[in-house]
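Sample A.
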Amino acid sequence: MADKDGLWKSSATKILAVSSPGGHWIQLNRLFPVFSKHETVFVTTNPNYRPGISLAKFYSVIEATRKEKLNLIIQLVEIFYILLRERPDVVISTGASCGFFGLFFGKLLGARTIWIDSIANTQILSLSGRLVAKFADLWLTQWPELSTPKGPEYKGRII
């Protein structure tokens, strides 16, 4: 995934790794061996995950769902601010609203973007995954039967 897809510029690549808590977060952290060679900034909605992120930068944003419109707006602003402050080269997410906003604004600001739909989505892609498709430079599913010629691609599973 690294150099052949042109997603990492060099050893000095700055990555913004963003996801919701729970399974999304676990899957994102399974990719830590890839992140460890780069400056990585983590973003999630659970501030209690901070101790598990050794020396990397960590941000917590408000939890939001599509039913919580005000929280979605606050989360959107928080993610946009983090992206303006950090200016990552790559934004990667395993899901939900904060991941969608991360990829959306990351793409607008010139970052390369990677979306990995959650392994929990066995029958249909997540809503965020379907919406983010046009902003993802690399759009992946963890189920071969959800892969299509137009995307997402199947390259294996994280869990």
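Sample B.
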Amino acid sequence: MKPAIYITALSTPEKYNLLSRIRGNPISIEEEDGLQRQPENYDCKVHGEVPLLEALKNSYNLATIQLGLNIDLQGAISTLQRSGIEQEIHAFPSLLLSAIELMSFDVAQMCQSIANGGFLVSLNSVIEVLYSNGNLYSTMVWR
């Protein structure tokens, strides 16, 4: 989910660029079940206000969550879908914490779209390997 949040933010250059400052302070998020979540950065440190580039480069959870709250979360979901993710995604607060289950093929499709300059090119996968005589050597299921 993080790449979609940053791509969505950077697609509005009048608001965000790589030097835009993002707060990365502790936050409490109430989930649909009423529970309060207090996410942390992977290093358990609070980095405060940081440039967007630093938050992205270091994958700071707190700054990413704040950025996600400031942008249109539905826009980030649309970014995911434009990158090839076909499943329905609901805009729950936990989505900001990357609480989404994706198959590895879908993640590869999203990364392919990012690497391809934002253009969706459907991935192909090997589903069978045959011997030279045409007999089946192996079958792989990806979707």
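B remarks: Residues 125 and 142 are 7 Å apart (CA to CA). The chain has a mean pLDDT of 87.
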